Amino acid sequence: EAGVVQSPRYKIIEKKQPVAFWCNPISGHNTLYWYLQNLGQGPELLIRYENEEAVDDSQLPKDRFSAERLKGVDSTLKIQPAELGDSAVYLCASSLRGTGGNTQYFGPGTRLTVL
Amino acid sequence: SQQGEEDPQALSIQEGENATMNCSYKTSINNLQWYRQNSGRGLVHLILIRSNEREKHSGRLRVTLDTSKKSSSLLITASRAADTASYFCATETSGTYKYIFGTGTRLKVLA
To answer: Is A25 on the interface with B (CB under 8 A)?
Structure first.
């Protein structure tokens, strides 16, 4: 079974440019998470989807960040415009709600560098 | 955002020794999970312990949970060079499906 797929793996952009990250969760997983991970830190939740509904986006900087999960499968996270402080690894994870404990399966992440 | 505290921040041991890392958290939880992250890669789930459990084992891993102290420990026995990674605890806040990750312990196992 394929794991969580993310693309691109690396992205280098100049500040004020837009950028988008894509995530394909494990087949059948109805819950999808986007996390931000700074160097030497643990992941911090940006947004959580249950199917196509964003049920927790309290930590998403909505002035520049947006996300969507059309049809409750793939998801895209966008930053526009990017700032220097957005340089980080963006992780996508998925889980099957209701299995008891919501084990999250993580993708390899997208490492964003903003110059 | 709030994160759990893990200690030590970094740990270096010889192959074959045991490694213990600790996690403290702030809120009531449904469960606590431990994840491993190899350099530059995604996180891999290791073990889950529910709030009504006190100890759990999985292979060379032993996890304890003390909800009265809001703390957990992860013990890796007979460590191997391949165990070199960062280890994170993640707590699921009671009444939610929200996970809060700790700051991580960077373990280095020397061959």
So the answer is: no
Q: Which of A66-80, A91-105, B85-99 is the most confident on average?
A: A66-80
CB B19 within 8 A of CB B83: yes
Looking at chain B from residue 38 to 77, which residues have their Cβ under 8 Å from any Cβ of chain A? 40-45, 48, 50
Query: Distance (Å) from the C-alpha of residue A53 to the closest C-alpha of chain B?
Result: 14
- Candidates B45, B34, B56, B42; CA nearest to B101 is B34
Q: Which residues contact B36 (CB under 8 A, 6 or more apart)?
A: B43, B44, B46, B85, B86, B87, B88
For residue A98, what is the DSSP state?
Answer: T
Q: Is B24 on the interface with A (CB under 8 A)?
A: no
Closest to B36 in 3D by CA, of B109, B110, B111 = B109
Nearest by CB to B42, which of A56, A91, A103? A91
Residue ranges of chain B with per-residue pLDDT less than 50? none
Terminal alpha carbon distance of chain A: 37
Q: Is B97 exposed, middle or buried (0-12, 13-18, 19+ CB in 10 A)?
A: middle
Tens of pLDDT, residue by residue over A24-62, are 999 999 999 999 999 989 999 999 999 999 988 989 999
Residue type, B80: R
Model pLDDT for residues B70-99, shown as the tens digit of each residue = 999 999 999 999 999 999 999 988 877 788
